[in-house]
Amino acid sequence: MQSAHASQLFQTSSSLATGKRRAAKASGSAAKRGRPIYLGRRQKDAEDLKLGGAGSDAGREKVLDALVDGGGRVWTAESGGVVRGTDLQTGRTTHLLLAHKAPVCSLALISPTLLASAGWDKVIHFWPISPTPSTSNGNTSTSAPHRPQPLYTISNASEDFIKALHYLPSQQVLLSGGADRSVRAWRLAGLESALQTRSAGTLSGSHTRGITSITSLARIEGQQGVGGNEVVYTADSMGRILEVQLDCSGDDRVRFEVLRELRGPETSVAQLVGCWGPLHEDEDEDDEENAAGAGPSRRPAYIWAASNDKTAQRFDVVAPVAKAGATKGAPQPRHERSSNTGALLGRLPPLAPSVILSHPDYVKTVLPLPQDAAAGRADVVVTGSADEDLRVWRLAGNEVGAEQQLVRRQRGHWHEVEKVLLWHGIVDEDEGEEGKEASSASVASWWVISAGLDGSIRRWRLDELLVAGGEEEEDEDKVEEEVSKQANGSESKSPAGGGMTAEEEAELAELMSDEE
């Protein structure tokens, strides 16, 4: 009798097949897709990944959160307790921030020179980061990464691990949330003295599960009310999303008030993203006062939610002024839910999603593209999923119930995609290829940056993603189908997973027929 490898014990045949498929992608089609930057060692050993089955991942280099700064770097929060700064043009590591003693789950950029990080160790660190990746001799390709120490630290910043950070620059307030189901506010105006006291305020009792994401709408010129950073949106692992008003007028305290619920996701929300829609043109050319922002806001604002219920949903939290003759009203929320989030909260009626993008697996991240980046279109959305793929969507319009079109499904990552970001810059196209000298384009362009549990950062040229998928994707479908067939075929022939060979199955069938 043949024995199974130790890592294959207690794994189903489906799990083992997943490992084989991921191994084939990591060593084959996914190796160079998206101009990858590997944070650890590149997964070249397909056999190790096969043996790991569905549990195969990048180990300590799994990316749990990421953000892009103004200096052309991507910062990654990793499962090994490391915060890493990487130059997106060259792919070189510029910073290694080493102080966390557990996985790092969230990052927040406080200023061009200050970064906050938090994770399972319930600590918030504030790191000094240089505004640009530079060295004394100007050669970033051969220099060692900077390893600064934290400037300040908030110890015991939560009763359980911290999952989300969000900074409100207009109020100089940092929000943190995590598994203790509370959102805490930290005033950073007087950083050294503030960190020696307790939090300035806490939202507790409203969420029934751990906080997973916090976001807000950036302040833009000419917008009023909800567009300020005093209104934030919080989400938890049960699918509850709250619109919360922050009163930061006091000298010391920050007060929270729940305004309403955004009811849509049926289970855990992986990410919230706030954005402004395009300015709607008015048929009345004389109505310039309203268009300038003096009257009612005519620019819609959206909150996008990526959820484990396999959807990305858009909520129109600020609706534009309705055009004359418009009759379609706001969507009604679904009050019946498969998950029990508790009694309805807030003094305002709940809000339902206006757009729902369905996926075959958990949606981990969502990126609504600004109009200037998406070739003049304001209705393009990029999502990342647990099925390892990026998807580019185009909405038929910004009104309620607008139809959506899947423009492209982009393969590349061999594990779950955790974060999708937007960056404008230059990439050395030949970076990382042996025997080639790095060269870069002379003109900066838009890039979609993705990161995931395969321990890689991928750089996708946006104008290429906006093109509908062609023969390349069809070829990859055929490759994956062939890999799946080979995996299934090997399972039927090999008893390594605890099953029987074809000969043993035939013998058993003969014995059973004899008994009858």
TrEMBL record:
<feature type="compositionally biased region" description="Acidic residues">
    <location>
        <begin position="470"/>
        <end position="480"/>
    </location>
</feature>
<feature type="region of interest" description="Disordered">
    <location>
        <begin position="278"/>
        <end position="297"/>
    </location>
</feature>
<feature type="region of interest" description="Disordered">
    <location>
        <begin position="1"/>
        <end position="39"/>
    </location>
</feature>
<feature type="compositionally biased region" description="Acidic residues">
    <location>
        <begin position="502"/>
        <end position="516"/>
    </location>
</feature>
<protein>
    <submittedName>
        <fullName>WD40 repeat-like protein</fullName>
    </submittedName>
</protein>
<feature type="compositionally biased region" description="Acidic residues">
    <location>
        <begin position="281"/>
        <end position="290"/>
    </location>
</feature>
<dbReference type="Pfam" id="PF00400">
    <property type="entry name" value="WD40"/>
</dbReference>
<dbReference type="GO" id="GO:1990234">
    <property type="term" value="C:transferase complex"/>
</dbReference>
<dbReference type="InterPro" id="IPR036322">
    <property type="entry name" value="WD40_repeat_dom_sf"/>
</dbReference>
<dbReference type="InterPro" id="IPR001680">
    <property type="entry name" value="WD40_rpt"/>
</dbReference>
<keyword id="KW-0677">Repeat</keyword>
<feature type="compositionally biased region" description="Polar residues">
    <location>
        <begin position="1"/>
        <end position="17"/>
    </location>
</feature>
<keyword id="KW-0853">WD repeat</keyword>
<feature type="region of interest" description="Disordered">
    <location>
        <begin position="323"/>
        <end position="343"/>
    </location>
</feature>
<dbReference type="InterPro" id="IPR015943">
    <property type="entry name" value="WD40/YVTN_repeat-like_dom_sf"/>
</dbReference>
<feature type="region of interest" description="Disordered">
    <location>
        <begin position="469"/>
        <end position="516"/>
    </location>
</feature>
<feature type="repeat" description="WD">
    <location>
        <begin position="155"/>
        <end position="188"/>
    </location>
</feature>
